[in-house]
Amino acid sequence: MFSKTNLISTLVGAVWSYVGGYLLWSMLGSSLFAGHEGTATGLWKETPDQVHNIIAGVIMAFAFSTIYSKLSNSEHSISNGATYGLLVGLFVGFGERWYDFAFANMMDITGTIINGILNLVFYCILGILTSMVYNKVKSA
């Protein structure tokens, strides 16, 4: 669980989490989400808490990498990583976020679908990066 490969993969995943999250949700998503907010007010912070954003990214990347290592059967191809990432993206982006749609007024259905697609892209890239690290770095 705390192998060299897993720790390097966690670091790479945490960097992608921070950079990719910014690119996908702040740069690209902000214009896509415009007009698709729900009726909930005061939900988003004006300035995100970057320390907790980084902590969340490290935790998520560690869990993602650890589960990937258990399920990959030591086959670390880009297609395996992309498939794993797509499944996690489906779980989070359309499973978990659809619950948000059902129980909260955070976004309308269009915003929920856009968020789901961004999650698919995000986790697919994370899966590819994770598989590349596992393919290149061998644990001692």
Briefly summarize what is shown.
It contains four helices and no strands. With 140 residues, the protein is mainly alpha-helical.
Order of helices and strands: HHHH
User: Measured on Cα atoms, how large is the radius of gyration?
Assistant: 16 Å
Report how far apart the termini are: 12 Å
What fraction, in percent, of the residue positions are helical? over 70%
Percentage beta strand: under 5%
Q: Shape, please?
A: elongated
> What's the tally of helices?
4
What is the count of β-strands? Answer: 0
- The low-pLDDT segments are none
Largest beta-sheet details = none
Average pLDDT level: 92
Structural class: mainly alpha
Question: What distinguishing features does this structure have?
Answer:
elongated, 140 residues, 4 helices, mainly alpha
